[in-house]
TrEMBL record:
It comes from the Eukaryota. It comes from Microthyrium microscopicum. Residues 117-437 form the GH16 domain. Keywords: Membrane, Transmembrane, Transmembrane helix. The chain crosses the membrane at residues 58-76. Belongs to the glycosyl hydrolase 16 family. This is Putative gram-negative bacteria binding protein. GO terms for biological process: carbohydrate metabolic process. InterPro entries: Beta-glucanase-like, ConA-like_dom_sf, Glycosyl_Hydrlase_16. One of its GO terms (molecular function) is hydrolase activity, hydrolyzing O-glycosyl compounds.
Length: 438
């Protein structure tokens, strides 16, 4: 049987020996199939393909010109929104220390109206400065106090009015929330749980504020489940009444959770204006916008969160005024009352009252002096963290919300960033008042 692996030379030799003549294989001669000589090329003289080619080129050129024109228009429209106002720099703080001539540190327990789970302190572990700037770091209550795990849950009276000095409660004694803000008793039966974490909240109230101008805060946001960093503003005096009648300006609010769909993580932040005749009739949803980054998040490096505010408009931005997030043109409505269409709303079967009826400012309540707030909250019961999303361990409306959050510590605490990454680091704060310096 013929083997394909046999030696071909030996096979030929054996055939020759047996008298069988095998002709040698001729080498293949390369033959070109290209046309030689002249050949007809009728398309060369045909004007139709040439016209089609020119037409195609002109269409491409037209698209390029239109694209460049649209790009220039977009940039021009963004540029004209940037004001040509005069500004006077009234604050430039890079935090060599926490300057008490600029910053107040708040101390209280009641959650500041949002139901957050942290206890705001002046503890140097929660707010301190170093070469990077200001750090606002949350800590476990059991880490930084003598309060035990069992005392957080039951039978312990915490009265921060008795601490004295800088540690005393900063809630005004005339406030209806004074008692709950300054003292509480844990009770396992009623699910009344002491704040299981401590953090810090700094503001410039009575020291630095603006009516129209600019603010820029360069900061790196925290990483960790249920952390809530915020850079925002509140009115110096509630001229138009309690929140939200006198307004609130949120330059930046984010979440420390890992990036996830729907803006539920630290790759997204929101800018919002709160305003309305009552807490139930808050027009914030008309003046809210978000910015999301891809393949990174706001805890990976420093960003500048800014706001520019005038009588005619207000806009927030990130890193540059050209990168606007929320833009509100106060000239597009007669006033904020008509912008919110509140005249068509009823509350408890009663017609709402316009809190800004005594002023002719079309931007009221955003025509008053506002101060700046920097803080990192933990948790909340106001809907900021959506029930059922990201395995949220508590339900906002539950009486046991704080206890349920605390019970899940082994799940959320390991997600908090190491060392200062669990907090918000603020490198610099600048504030400008509109107008020339006097």
């Amino acid at each position: 049987m013929f083997s394909p692996f046999a030696d071909h030379d030996s096979i030929s030799d054996s055939r020759i020996a047996s008298g069988i003549q095998t002709p040698r294989r001729q080498k293949h001669q390369f033959r070109s199939y290209l046309l030689n000589g002249k050949y007809e090329r009728p398309w060369v003289d045909d004007s139709v393909p040439k016209r089609a080619l020119k037409r195609s080129n002109w269409i491409i050129y037209a698209f390029i010109i239109v694209a460049l024109g649209l790009s220039a228009l977009i940039n021009w429209r963004a540029t004209i929104k940037i004001s040509k106002h005069d500004y006077c720099l009234i604050l430039d703080d890079s935090f060599s220390s926490i300057d008490k001539d600029i910053w107040n540190q708040e101390v209280q327990l009641s959650g500041f109206g949002t139901g957050e789970f942290d206890w705001a302190t002046t503890d140097s572990k929660n707010a301190f400065t170093d070469s990077e700037g200001l750090h606002i770091n949350p800590t476990l209550t059991t880490e930084t106090t003598a309060i035990t795990h069992d005392q957080i849950l039951d039978n312990f009276v915490l009265n921060i009015t008795a601490a004295g000095g800088d540690g005393s409660c900063t809630e005004p004694t005339t406030s209806p929330a004074y008692n709950s803000a300054c003292s509480m008793r844990s009770n396992a039966t009623t699910k009344t749980t002491l704040p299981p974490v401590r953090s810090a909240r700094l503001n410039t109230k009575g020291k630095k504020g603006i009516t129209y101008g600019r603010i820029e805060v360069t900061a790196k946001l925290p990483s960790g489940d249920w952390l809530w960093p915020a850079i925002w503003m509140m009115p110096e005096s509630s001229l138009y009444g309690p929140w939200p009648r006198s307004g609130e300006i949120d330059i930046m609010e984010s979440k420390g959770n890992a990036p996830s769909p729907g803006g539920q993580g630290r790759d997204t932040f929101l800018s919002t204006l709160h305003w309305g005749p009552s807490a139930k009739a808050d027009g914030f949803w008309r003046t809210t916008d978000a910015r999301t980054v891809k393949r990174t998040d706001f805890s990976k490096g420093f960003h500048t969160f800014g706001i520019e505010w005038s009588r005619d408009y207000m806009f927030t931005y990130v890193d540059s005024p050209l990168q606007q997030v929320l833009y509100v043109d106060f000239r597009k409505a007669a006033n904020m009352w008509s912008r919110g269409a509140f005249e068509r709303r009823l509350e408890n079967n009663s017609v709402l009252t316009n809190p800004w009826r005594e002023t002719d400012s079309r931007n009221a309540p955003f025509d008053q002096k506002f101060f700046l707030i920097l803080n990192v909250a933990v948790g909340s019961r106001n809907g900021w963290f959506t029930d059922g999303v990201n395995n949220k361990p508590w339900v906002d409306g539950s009486d046991s919300a704080v206890a349920d959050f605390y019970a899940a510590q082994d799940k959320w605490y390991p997600t908090w960033g190491k060392n200062n990454d669990r907090g918000m680091t603020v490198k610099n704060v600048k504030m400008w008042q509109e107008g020339k310096c006097k």
